[in-house]
Automatic annotation (TrEMBL):
This is CTP synthase. The keyword Ligase applies. Residues 309-543 form the Glutamine amidotransferase domain. Residues 2-272 form the CTP synthase N-terminal domain. Its EC number is 6.3.4.2. Keywords: ATP-binding, Glutamine amidotransferase, Ligase, Nucleotide-binding, Pyrimidine biosynthesis. GO terms for biological process: 'de novo' CTP biosynthetic process; pyrimidine nucleobase biosynthetic process. PROSITE patterns: GATASE_TYPE_1.
Length: 560
């Protein structure tokens, strides 16, 4: 197994995840099979219990793993299906070591960070690296490992030591270290400063790791003089100093790396030049250029709780991008804080209230994504009601589907106090209830998680036609609450149709309103399986409906 390690220095948030994904894309384009691992040095076992404000969205895998959003980047860029073990955290490592210690596996030894924690890290990396993730038999050729955090952080020290030992263990031909760093430009002087990177590389070398390639993040392309200075002081050949400057969209980054011969430097270090072919990035080039040349846009109102941090809905944003580009539009997302639509905000913050409603009414479609807790729920219901009554295309995901059910029960059935027991445990009309597939008290890993099959109840529905499958769809879930099966009959008599159910028939998965041009709710998260070249069916439907092209598309698909 060949390992490519991506570390980061100077500051966090430099785009190590996108860099790691892009390097994987270039190596894959050279004919190699690629897998990836993300190391997160935090103590949480997984990302499941972290607030989106804290760490961005929680990405869900087929096997139910709740992981860092960077694994979403890997899946989208490399078109692979990862497992929960592809995300290593300090919590997982310590948990596995402590469980062994309690069982007496260490035979009375003093359990220490070195060698026990570092050995556990190496064993984990080596065992996960050989799991095939691309649907083929046998292990991949290259494993790209992203080390989260910044070099010098206390919590990442055991991982750096483990990687140092791994590099020694596997030998120089099987180990390539790429360090991502920042080259700032100070306003007054306007000079590209290399000193932060020099210090970062010195710190890395003091810990026993010397980078083979340097990837410099900057606003503008690096000057040759800057590269030479970096080469001299960081002990890296000039041709191995790559520059990822700001680009119009991230699909350019694999192209940027290829244009700087990054693949040649990596393949040379890993002794893979004879095995690899010249990189074929035709599809990426077309995608990047297509996006750059788009002129028409479609306005999408995104009504959610965590709109202050767009990373909270990263997969939804990417799924909208994939769907829009497939139809030759640029997505123009209008972020609306759900609480700003509520009547209370008309009194407390009238300007925000008026602006939110103006934005909602000028959008071509409405999307209510998933979320937890009751903040902003009334605002989401108002958005769903507005879309339903005014024939505006609406897509509700997870909580967004439950919102549409509550709103329909209140407005159409006249159940004024209809609610989810998540928000009102005493509601006389519980239209959304807790249906356990896990514990009621423990937060971690208690949800309905991972890929589940949804059986379509009829082929004569928008969802079936969009998916091109009249029988079933497989999508990923992350929720605790479900639409109450006892009220389905009443809701369906009033016009709301549940066109997708789970295999037991008790859990409602997809709803549609046949009297509306596009009013769809999904209990699952279709955004997690959207890919640049294969947009999610429901997101594509939303964009088609918003641009008046849905009927023509469906009749064309069904005609073919």
């Amino acid at each position: 197994m060949k390992y490519v390690i991506i570390s980061g220095g100077v500051v966090s948030g430099l785009g190590k995840g996108v860099t790691a994904s892009s390097i994987g894309v270039v190596l894959k384009a050279c004919g190699l099979r690629v897998t990836s691992i993300k190391i997160d040095p935090y103590l949480n076992i997984d990302a499941g219990t972290m607030s989106p404000f804290e760490h961005g969205e929680v990405f869900v895998l087929d096997d139910g793993g709740e992981v860092d959003l960077d694994l979403g980047n890997y899946e989208r860029f490399l078109d692979v299906t990862l497992t929960k073990d592809n995300n290593i955290t300090t919590g997982k490592i310590y948990q596995s070591v402590l469980e062994k210690e309690r069982k007496g596996d260490y035979l009375g030894k003093t359990v220490q960070v070195v060698p026990h924690i570092t050995d556990a890290i190496k064993d984990w990396i080596e065992s996960v690296a050989v799991i095939p993730v691309d649907g083929k038999e046998g292990p991949a050729d290259v494993c790209v490992i992203e080390l989260g955090g910044t070099v010098g952080d206390i919590e990442s020290m055991p991982f750096i030591e483990a990687l140092r030992q791994l590099s020694f263990q596997v030998g120089p031909d099987n180990f390539c270290l790429i360090h991502v760093s920042l080259i700032p430009v100070l306003g007054v002087v306007g000079e590209q400063k290399t000193k932060p990177t020099q210090h970062s590389v010195r710190e890395l070398r003091a810990l026993g790791l010397t980078p083979h390639l340097l990837t410099s993040r900057s606003a503008e392309p690096l000057l040759e003089s800057t590269k030479e200075k970096l080469s001299k002081f960081c002990h890296v050949p000039v041709e191995n100093i790559l520059n990822i400057h700001d680009v119009p969209n991230i699909w350019h980054i694999p192209l940027l790396l290829r244009n700087q011969n990054a693949h040649h430097s990596i393949l040379h270090q890993l002794n893979l030049l004879s095995q690899a072919t010249p990189p074929d990035l035709q599809q990426w080039t077309e995608m990047a250029e297509t996006y750059d040349n788009l002129t028409e846009s479609v306005r999408i109102a995104m009504v959610g709780k965590y709109v202050g941090l767009t990373d909270s809905y990263l997969s939804v944003v990417k799924a909208l991008l994939h769907a829009c580009v497939a139809r030759s539009f640029k997505p123009s997302i209008d972020w609306i804080a759900a609480s700003d639509l509520e009547d209370d905000s008309a009194e407390s913050t009238p300007e925000a209230h008026a602006a939110a409603w103006k934005t909602l009414k000028s959008a071509a479609c409405v999307l209510v994504p998933g979320g937890f807790g009751d903040r902003g729920v009334r605002g989401m219901m108002l958005a769903a009601k507005y879309a339903r009554e005014n024939n505006i295309p609406y897509l509700g995901i997870c909580l967004g589907m439950q919102i549409s059910v509550i709103e329909f029960a209140r407005s159409v059935l006249g159940w004024e106090r209809a609610n989810s027991v998540e928000f009102d445990a005493q509601t006389p009309n519980p239209v959304v209830i807790f249906m356990p597939e896990g514990s009621r008290t423990h937060m971690g890993s208690t949800m309905r998680l991972g890929s589940r099959r949804t059986l379509l109840q009829t082929s004569n529905c928008i969802t079936s036609k969009l998916y091109g499958n009249s029988e079933y769809v497989d999508e990923r879930h992350r929720h605790r609450y479900e639409v109450n099966p006892d009220v389905i009959g009443t809701l369906e008599e009033a016009g709301l149709k549940f066109v997708g159910k789970d295999e037991s028939g008790k859990r409602m998965e997809i709803l549609e309103l046949p009297s509306h041009p596009f009013y769809v709710g999904a209990q699952f998260h279709p955004e997690f399986k959207s890919r640049p070249a294969r947009p999610s069916a429901l997101f594509l439907g939303l964009i088609l409906a918003a641009t008046g092209k849905l009927e023509a598309y469906i009749s064309r698909q069904n005609g073919s």
